[in-house]
Amino acid sequence: xxxxxxxxxxxxxxxxxxxxxxxxxxxxxxxxxxxxxxxxxxxxxxxxxxxxxxxxxxxxxxxxxxxxxxxxxxxxxxxxxxxxxxxxxxxxxxxxxxxxxxxxxxxxxxxxxxxxxxxxxxxxxxxxxxxxxxxxxxxxxxxxxxxxxxxxxxxxxxxxxxxxxxxxxxxxxxxxxxxxxxxxxxxxxxxxxxxxxxxxxxxxxxxxxxxxxxxxxxxxxxxxxxx
Length: 227
Fold this sequence. Notes:
Blueprint: E1 6-11, H1 15-26, E2 30-37, E3 46-47, E4 50-54, H2 58-61, E5 68-71, H3 76-91, E6 95-96, E7 99-100, E8 105-106, E9 111-112, E10 117-118, E11 123-124, E12 129-130, E13 135-136, E14 141-142, E15 147-148, E16 153-154, E17 159-160, E18 165-166, E19 171-172, E20 177-178, E21 183-184, E22 189-190, E23 195-196, E24 205-207, E25 212-213, H4 218-221
Parallel strand pairs: 1-2, 1-5, 2-4, 5-6, 7-10, 8-11, 9-12, 10-13, 11-14, 12-15, 13-16, 14-17, 15-18, 16-19, 17-20, 18-21, 19-22, 20-23, 22-24
Antiparallel strand pairs: 3-4, 24-25
């Protein structure tokens, strides 16, 4: 186990929060000291024998000068909940922690923003640039020179080929594939096994094999504002 030299609070009390706890505790320099959730959603006082503290007052007990936060939320409302609390944690003065599995292949010149979680068996090739608040579940391939925006959820076995440009707040389903030199806009929902061979405009929902765009946009389907 790595030597612990940083203190971490995990936002959330769901399955992903429990998973994040395991990875941070056993494969990072962070010691998890507490969980936090919105007071209205707090249903218990502890998780993994650690306190669950209301997020509204978290800084009173765990000041941002001494602790970092990771927002352990998934893709609900096309990542909107994760974006909301990411922004709120920053406004409270917290530094947002990232996790990169020791079993991921990440080339030395890859740029990675904060609050990004990279599971095992991800391959991230040279010259890739990754924004903030992204989740890369296990087993993805991110091709060389590609640029990934912020607030995305990339599930498992996703292939993003070389020289691609990915916008913000997208969802990539299991086994979705994006060919070389393509761009994906913002607020897109790409279902499982989608095969992308041309640029995708913002707000597009793609499902099925072969993949065809639905007539409804993500903003209407999920009742969300455009980013």
